[in-house]
Design a protein that fits this description.
The structure is a homodimer.
Chain A (H helix, E strand, L loop, with lengths): L2 H8 L7 E6 L12 H4 L3 H9 L1 E6 L9 H8 L11 H8 L9 E10 L5 E3 L7 H11 L8 E8 L2 E7 L29 H20 L8 E9 L6 H5 L3 E5 L2 H9 L3 E2 L6 H11 L5 E6 L1 H7 L3 H13 L2 H4 L5 E5 L16 E6 L22 E4 L3 H8 L9
Parallel strand pairs in A: 1-10, 1-11, 2-13, 8-9, 8-10
Antiparallel strand pairs in A: 2-12, 3-4, 3-6, 3-7, 5-6, 11-12
Amino acid sequence: MDRFELIEKLRQKSNEKIVFLVLDGLGGLPKGGKTELETASTPNMDKLAMEGETGLMIPVSPGITPGSGPGHLALFGYDPLQYVIGRGVLSALGIRFPIKEGDLAARINFATIDKDGNIVDRRAGRIPDEINKKMCEKIRQIKIPGIEFFIETVKEHRAALILRGGDFSDKLSETDPQKIGVPPLPVKPLINDEKAKKTAEILNEFVEKVKEVLKDEHPANMILLRGFALHTRIPTFEEVYGLKACAIAGYPMYRGLASLVGMEVIDVESGVESEFRKLEELWGKYDFYFVHIKYTDSSGEDGDFDRKVSVIEEVDRNLDLILKLKPDVFVITADHSTPANYKAHSWHPVPVILKSKWSRSANIKKFGETELLHGTLGIMKSVDLMTLIMAHSGRLAKFGA
Amino acid sequence: MDRFELIEKLRQKSNEKIVFLVLDGLGGLPKGGKTELETASTPNMDKLAMEGETGLMIPVSPGITPGSGPGHLALFGYDPLQYVIGRGVLSALGIRFPIKEGDLAARINFATIDKDGNIVDRRAGRIPDEINKKMCEKIRQIKIPGIEFFIETVKEHRAALILRGGDFSDKLSETDPQKIGVPPLPVKPLINDEKAKKTAEILNEFVEKVKEVLKDEHPANMILLRGFALHTRIPTFEEVYGLKACAIAGYPMYRGLASLVGMEVIDVESGVESEFRKLEELWGKYDFYFVHIKYTDSSGEDGDFDRKVSVIEEVDRNLDLILKLKPDVFVITADHSTPANYKAHSWHPVPVILKSKWSRSANIKKFGETELLHGTLGIMKSVDLMTLIMAHSGRLAKFGA
């Protein structure tokens, strides 16, 4: 019996409210003996850590650094090695495109080619979004009978392509040759399969037409296609857990990931206080509130240890906005580590606090990676967290007599 | 996606150097409150434990005592329950026989039979190696058309048999009846399969001929065959990890295990200082240096607590020879525990230190089983260690966007 089958079997109703606060990239590495989290002054979170269940979580498996997709899927209880979301689909989700099962998504890069058709610039001089939008509009004229095309601006030279209405395959090679001075590659089927061949033909025809439509433009006179991904519907949060869930997240990627699992995505300005106030405003309407704070990750990626510390402190200062709502289950954790000195996502386990009226306590003195080694949850896998949350919120019956 | 598929997908180049020091059977049990490792004075390893990632590892699964084969395969990242290396093959590897895919290997015991063909001594009085070699030479005269036979002395009454050139099965019963006063058993196919039947016939014909050739010898006038194992090639270290690896190990078994995964086996005299000096000599030529110290295990098997302590101290005293090379990733661990008071391999988790510039620290005061319970790695599985090493040496890209 897998996790979802077990949960489905044991699931029961409850009115308890869950706040699931994700500080993106929270986990860190020490500078002068202390990590970002250990350096930050966090009296509110320290109290939660002292009273609640605590530990560290491995997002995917030991040594594996997760992207935002796998990191969040694991937090939502979806095994990230089973539910693999392709780049094209993530890109479409990131701009909140209402992708459907069976859609084929790809990432578009606008590029510049010379009169011989060779690539001069793989990013078309990073054109501004405005030019990108105009180019997308031009491309939208293209028709191929029986297939619906959606072309949407992402940012700079990047756009999203979604095909609908065919029986597509995503076992296709990309057209970006990853170098200049050569023409774009054709899309080729990666497997000997009729669907893949047919999809490649459609895409090559589309690219030819794009080339024709853009031939008098500059610098964006060509497109490169990457990250083909067929969208397969995955079971929603409501189907798996019976939870009515909403996502309070300012950034497109996380809104996309939340909508992928069927959460209701709330319009909110990105920021600690604005997101916490939005939560307050919505309080009572949902069972599960996913609140996503981006800046712990972005400061980590920028290598800015001090800024990451201050973002953590900002979260702690505003925590009363959540605490006064008295959520039945309050979880604070991260999708992955982004140590400031590593300047990137990393594989290191992430801190977690789970506070409910049924939590055990390990008398943790400070919310931090080193102290949490002594927590009640030990070192667990992120994918198991949702089952624990279900239990703590009274939503799982006994297994077996 | 399994571990190897994931690693293949994420693997990237790096020049970082890894030293992988295995103190065979390092884990112990307390005598007067402290284990062998806890009793030993190990200032160098204590410093590494304080600075690096630490924990305990379960070699196979809880309660399972590994032989050297599974213990090392797990350390090398090969699931020992999936990659099962038969005894015949291990025996051939142990004497560095260049075994090939499709070879059938078995262990030979020289035995003594009486004039009625009944076994009098299952070990032929543990004949000296010299006699063993003479007997092997005699047996080598035997010819069976189409099949190549290799017969190699191992030690005392033990030899290795390797068959090459046929389409063999290893689903065969052994000929050792495990008692005296009865004749050796014939080889029988264990499954209803043509290959197994044919292989049994060849082996029975071979044994008949051996009996004939040795009939005037004493005490080694017969052979018993055990541990039939077909050799299946397993993916090499270079194929799985992209690592150019060498093995600095004085003992045949470990050289054999290293060659099984495609490491280059270095000629070296067994011993702490000689092996560490060999490492120094080779420094820069490989990505991954597997250094194997045998005496922690052999003193444990002899039940000699104090000798095991002094071997550990000898390693620590010589550790500067490695430290001064400044490996990017330095791992110290064990294939299994061999507690001196248990006098055998045991199932207890083994200590591990992993030091790199990306290690978290848990401020461990002493490298020892009890302290390591508070380490940053918690209690993990040995088979996951290589993925962590890949991450710490910059050899794994991010999983998913």
